[in-house]
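Researcher: Go.
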Amino acid sequence: MTITNNDEVSITVDFDDALQAIAYLSNVLDFLRDKGADAHVKRIETAKEICEVFCCEHFQEELQDE
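Model: Structure:
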């Protein structure tokens, strides 16, 4: 997926890489919760939510196949 805006900024994200990033963030959240590092949990939760929304919005075709 490549996103380009009027400023010619381009972002390319592979579907599988995006899903792996969400899984990684889930593992990091579990680890931080187990260690009692609650100060960092909210930031990781926010990053995971951003990744999930990005996937839902920009990989609709791939998600329908899953």
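Model: The CA atoms of residues 59 and 65 lie 10 Å apart.
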